[in-house]
Amino acid sequence: MTARQKSSFPKHFLWGAATAAHQVEGGNHNQWTVWEL
Q1: Backbone φ, ψ for residue 27 (5° rounding)
Q2: What angle do CA 18, 24, 27 make, to 5 degrees?
Q3: What is the pLDDT of residues 2-33, one digit of tens each?
Q4: How far out from the chain centre does Cα 11 lie?
Q5: Quick one: how far is CA 22 from the chain centroid?
């Protein structure tokens, strides 16, 4: 077996995250796309 190499992120790396309302609040089985127009 070989040893794992240590990996790291760049010095000024910033984490981020995103989500959409229908992912959090539910309601995936409705006609929400009609309201997007």
Answers
A1: 80, 35
A2: 130
A3: 778 888 999 999 999 998 877 777 766 777 66
A4: 22
A5: 14
